[in-house]
Write a structure and sequence with these properties.
By secondary structure, the chain is α/β, with parallel strands linked by helices. The chain has 7 helices and 11 strands.
């Protein structure tokens, strides 16, 4: 499908798929959405520790980049796995402006390395941030009791409803450790019910710009 670069409301760019009228990040602000959903309501639950994160939809690498930046501020050591079925091209990556919009040009080599490293292997991006990228469908994830936090950033249920089913959330629930979280920008009732059906304790939280609510799921201790 055709993909094009667009500028979102906060000045940061994202990839737009005209056929679906869908973006990799919110048109109301790519960076704002990433910080609100995945940092404020996800990563900020942890500090001064080592955690493992699974990202569903590695995409442009924006979530991985800001996680690396924020982890340094909060003394976190991160093991990060990004799963992506259709990797972004180098031409598309070169058209993005996250480093300048974040005023994080010192992370240029970090961001470049995230995209340059080999798929399927453990890569040390910084001393405290290790990255594994896996190219596969989300349904093929087989991890068990492995992650403290999941960033669920798949394309929306409007265009890919098969990614927001009980079947997929069973895989997510299994992949999480006990006392762990899944955060997503979605607030659809069908998504909330699918998460609850597989065992998540789900809370509605204020959404990022352009969205009234978002969801966070919790896998409790048995």
């Amino acid at each position: 499908m055709k993909r094009e670069i667009i500028i979102t409301a906060d000045g940061s760019k994202t990839i737009h798929i005209p056929e679906w009228n869908e973006q990799y990040h919110s048109k109301h602000g790519a960076i704002q959405e990433a910080y609100h959903v995945f940092i404020k309501h996800g990563l900020s639950l942890f500090s001064n520790t080592s955690i493992s994160i699974l990202e569903i939809g590695f995409g442009t690498g924006l979530n991985a980049l800001i996680t690396c930046i924020e982890a340094e501020k909060n003394n976190l050591t991160i093991g990060y796995k990004g799963v992506e079925a259709y990797p972004v091209s180098s031409e598309e990556l070169n058209s993005l402006n996250y480093l300048s919009e974040l005023k994080a040009e010192t992370y240029t080599s970090v961001f470049d390395k995230m995209h340059a490293v080999e798929w399927g292997s453990i890569n040390e991006i910084t001393e405290d941030f290790k990255l594994v990228k896996e190219q596969k469908d989300f349904s093929q994830i087989q991890d068990s009791n492995a992650f403290d936090l999941i960033y669920f950033d798949a394309f929306g249920a409007r265009v890919q409803p098969e990614l927001w089913t009980e079947e997929i959330f069973k895989i997510m629930f299994k992949a999480l450790k006990e006392d762990a979280y899944l955060v997503t920008y979605s607030a659809k009732g069908s998504v909330r019910r699918a998460m609850q059906a597989v065992g998540f304790i789900v809370e509605r939280l204020p959404g990022p710009p352009g969205k009234r609510e978002m969801l966070r799921g919790y896998k409790s201790k048995v």
